[in-house]
Amino acid sequence: MTLRPALAFHLLCLAVLRFASLIVPRAQRRDWWREWSAELWHVRQACTPDRGISWAAEREVAAFCFGAFQDARCLRAQSAPAAMPRATTMGSASQCLLLLTGLIIASLSVAAILPGVREQFYQFRYHVPPGILLIQSARASEDATPTISGEQFLLWKARRQQLFTSFAFYQIDHEPAINSPHSQPKINIAHASTNLFQLLKLPIPVAPNATNLPAVILSNALWRNKFAANPSLIGQTVHLGKHDAVVAGIAPPGSWRLPGKVDAWLLEPDSSLLSAHNGFVIAETSKPETKGFGGHWRMSAPTPDGTVDDFVCLALIDRTHTVNDIFLFAIILACLALPATTSLPLGEYRVGSRKLTWPARLRRWAFLTSKIALLLPLVYLVSIDLAYLRPILNHDTSDYIQLISSFSICLFGLRWSLRDQRQRCPVCLGKLTHPARVGQPSRNFLAWNGTELICLGGHGLFSTSPSYPPAGSAPSAGSTSTPLGTSSSPKRASPLSTSERLSLTV
Description:
Layout lengths: L4 H17 L4 H22 L7 H25 L6 H4 L3 H21 L1 H8 L9 E6 L12 H9 L7 E11 L9 E8 L2 H5 L14 E5 H8 L9 E4 L2 E9 L12 E5 L11 E5 L11 E7 L5 E8 H4 L3 H19 L16 H30 L7 H28 L11 E5 L11 E5 L6 E2 L19 E2 L23
Parallel strand pairs: 3-7, 4-6
Antiparallel strand pairs: 1-8, 1-10, 2-3, 2-8, 4-7, 5-6, 9-10, 11-12, 13-14
Helix pairs in contact: 1-2, 1-3, 2-3, 5-12, 11-13, 12-13
């Protein structure tokens, strides 16, 4: 049994229409199938009246069948539930705040991963005693340079003092790492007096040492990197640099606030601290008369060669600034530089302009306050992440990086906050990104003619009536509505600034 070509083409067209009807919503599928089938019969009757085979007629019938897919897609789009316009969520006030919150969480995650950043946060756990001083030579260019010799320290400690109750000394050597007979990475070992940590009042439990070997206190980073954070290491003997020592304790992270990056502290008797290297002297004073000198004062003291030299006493509590001090200083500098780099007003209002309601004003100011409140912790975390990204950097370099990054990010962040506020609708805080034509070209001298920006809700154009225009509507070219921005007509009052208008066509 064979089918005639005309019947075969007709069945193929019916199959195409049946497939197109599957795209139509279920409730209308049967009706549209009947409609297309009836139209197909009429089209075929009109194109092939003699029921013969004509390729031109069959192409016309096929074009009609494939046109059913366009109808099906239109029906599917019309029957779909009205989705929220993208502009109401993309660029909205809530999305802006969520973006800033996400950046804060990301910066906090990076800070939790980097060991150098974690150490800066650990410093807030420890209190620096107010009576602890760092003594240096008056000729020192910076307080991070060792200027005191071991002989000078022993001379001061042996003399009877009136201002100081006790002294401690340490000098830093760059020695080979643990058990490294060959060329291996080196570590910083501080040869310190036995009372150094007692003078600093650091909470480090020191285990008793029953041997004649010197005691060593390891830094938290060295303990984790070289000894895999072994808790049973305390009391064992290790080969540290050129010495054998007994591990007496582990320094908590962030507890060291004195000059120099130290990996281990070798506690030795005072007689063993005589070397060619200079070091640092830490003194404790409890005299009330020294409080009036401030945190930086000079004194004259004898030297081992029998002469008198000048020395500088620095209060440790004033020297050991934290990352918070640098951050606050950078914020002050950014706030002072902001008026010189951008316009501060959020809008230019006329005296007779229409005022917003109090809820709209509060919502607008609350949004600006929220942006700035989220921007400050973001600047704080990002600047610390950049400053202490690499732990090999010294403390001064990290301070400069934090100061520059904090100032730059805060300044440009505040500029963005103000510029973003001026580009938002004062009613719904949506972006003013939709152009609308206003006025008539023939009334340029009597009214305003140009293009205004409105939000998706229809705000941004106020009619002469007290009520706002309906959402999604825009005035026609012949309407008498007035734009929000400042116009060239002196009679028209407008509550929005000219910066909220993207373009003006006259």
